[in-house]
Write a structure and sequence with these properties.
alpha/beta, 19% strand, 7-stranded mixed β-sheet, 288 residues, 5-stranded parallel β-sheet, Rossmann fold
């Protein structure tokens, strides 16, 4: 079996050391790191990965796309996919800024406490890359999802982007933060609350969470104080809060790390895998 080579392609000037360490721990035997990669410069890197091996040996080369700019990483992913033809390809994974592994871990954690089919879920601060993926994965498994943002227009745009990634039949609703403040019934019907907002902003207080009558699980993905959800510590893992349980960012972090490593390992099982949100979510589900 040829050496397992992973090309780490990053849109930042310096490729992420975090992603590099995880890749090595996951079994990549040689790691080729490229920073500040743009769509017009990624093709030659892909050609180098595609044309140096053939047949079964192609599965021993894979590509990981990272970086802090998720939109730019998605452009790189699209360009990489267009570069492949027929069986001449290698497996590729996108997890820029941990967007896919974090969202997958959060939704799997939520599903431990409630069947997602027809569950009512709100994603607070849901217009960013992680928030949109959390909404996508919840909706993919049948939840009725509300995306919240300070801007109603941005929330509606996020709903539309999520619908485009799914089959269009999912129930997605957009609300602004002001609408939630004005109509507490929006929160009172929610069984799942996941906070994906910017660091340093409390989206719900402990008192507000404890007053939610139907709450099953609340997850705060902000690891920087103050908490996005009051009363939930960063290390909490299924700790009681109100009528449900709460998870902090580190509380779901163990599953996120296991998912990241397992996804890297999966890249070398064949040469035709494209691991994005739904595929990585499937890996997280198998881990549990």
């Amino acid at each position: 079996m040829p050496t397992r080579i992973l090309l780490q392609i990053d849109n930042d000037p310096q490729p992420s050391s975090f992603d590099s360490v995880v890749a090595i721990d996951a079994g990549a035997e040689q790691l080729l790191r490229y920073g500040n990669v743009q769509p017009d410069s990624v093709v030659s890197l892909v050609h180098g990965a595609m044309f140096t091996r053939g047949g079964e040996d192609l599965r021993s080369t894979a590509i990981f796309i990272g970086g802090s700019n998720v939109k730019a990483a998605e452009e790189l992913m699209a360009t990489v996919a267009k570069t492949f033809f027929g069986p001449v390809r290698v497996s590729v994974m996108l997890d820029a800024n941990g967007c896919n592994t974090t969202a997958s871990a959060a939704v799997v954690a939520a599903a431990r406490h409630i069947d997602l089919r027809n569950a009512q879920a709100v994603v607070l601060g849901g217009t960013g890359p992680v928030g949109q993926r959390v909404a996508q994965l919840l909706a993919h498994d049948g939840a009725r999802v509300t995306i919240s943002s300070r801007s109603a227009e941005r929330a509606e745009q996020a709903c539309n982007e999520v619908r485009e990634k799914l089959d269009g039949t999912q129930q997605l609703t957009a609300v602004s933060s002001e609408q939630i403040k004005a109509d507490i019934s929006i929160l009172e019907q929610q069984q799942i609350v996941i906070a994906c907002g910017a660091a340093g902003i409390e989206l719900l207080s402990k008192e507000q969470i404890e007053e939610l009558p139907n709450l099953c699980v609340a997850i705060d993905l902000n690891a920087v104080p103050p908490a996005g959800l009051g009363g939930i510590a960063v290390t909490d893992k299924a700790q009681p809060i109100g009528s449900g349980v709460g998870y902090g960012a580190i509380g779901v972090g163990g599953l996120k790390m296991k998912t990241h490593r397992a996804a890297i390992q999966a890249l070398f099982e064949s040469n035709d895998q494209r691991l994005d949100a739904i595929e990585i979510y499937g890996i997280a589900k198998n881990i549990g």
